[in-house]
Amino acid sequence: MALAVKQPGSYIAKHVYRLAETIDVGHFKASWEQTVQLCSNLRTRIVMNEGASLQVVIDNDISWDETSDLSLAAYLDEELVMEYGSRLSRYTIVGDSNGPKYFVWTAHHAVIDGWTVQINLETLQRIYNNRPAPTLQPYANFINYIRQLDQQAAADYWISELEGAQRPTFPPAGPLFQAAASDTSATRVLNTRIAFPSFDKSSITKPSVLRAAWAIILGRYSDTDDVCFGVTTSGRQAPVQGLLDMAGPAICTLPVRI
Predict the structure, then answer these.
(1) d(CA 32, CA 43)
(2) What is the distance between the alpha carbons of residues 204 and 197, in angstroms, rounded to a whole number?
(3) Which fold has domain 143-181+189-257?
(4) How confident is the model over 217-237, as pLDDT tens digits?
C-alpha cells in the first residue's frame, strides 16, 4: 500500500467479465453482494494508525459504482486512485440495454492475489447457482501468524543467505551521460514452446526449470556464476491451518540466489 501511495493508480487490477445473455443481472448483483459479505477481503480497507498500517474489515461495505452510461472503454480509461482509508474493491455493471453487459471488478493488490480471486469467483458461482457457498477460514489467522514471526531470526537468516552476493545489473546499464536522448517504445509478441519434463517421469517442477534457465541467462549476460533475483510465490505453503481456504493475499516475493 505504501508503494501505491508513491505511485497513485499503481497496483490496481481491473477484471472485466462479459455477462452471457442468459445471466439475470439482478440475481447476479445480489449474488455478488452475498459474496462480498462472505469474503472479508472484499470489505477490507487499510488505514494508518500511529504510523502503522492496519487492516480494517467493514461490516457493510457494498456499493456499486455508477457508470453514467459510459462505454466499457471509457470506464476503463478513467483514472482510479485507491489510497489509505478508501475502498479497495469496487465493482459495476457496464453496458446499455441493447448491447452486451460487463461486470467490472477493480481491486487493489493489497486485498487480492491470484488464489484469492479464484476463491471469490467460486463463491460467486456457487451462490448464483443456488449451491452452498464454500466454507472459508478467517484470514486473520494468517495475519496473526505473520505478526508472531521472529523478525530478528528472519533478518539473520537472509543476511547469512545473501552474504557476499554479487549484484549484477541486467540488462547492463548504459553510459551515464549521453549527448542526445529520445524515448521510443515498441511492442513485440514472442511465441515459443518449451518442452517440460512430465511430472510422472521427473521430480523436477516447472518453476525449478524456469528459475534455473533464468539464472543461466543472468549469469551469461552479467558474466558471473553467482546470481540473485526475485521470485514471487503463492505463499500458501506457510504452516497456517486452512490457508488454502482463506480469501486474502498471501503472495510473497523472495530473493533466490543460485
Answers:
(1) 12
(2) 8
(3) Chloramphenicol Acetyltransferase (3.30.559)
(4) 999 888 888 999 999 999 999
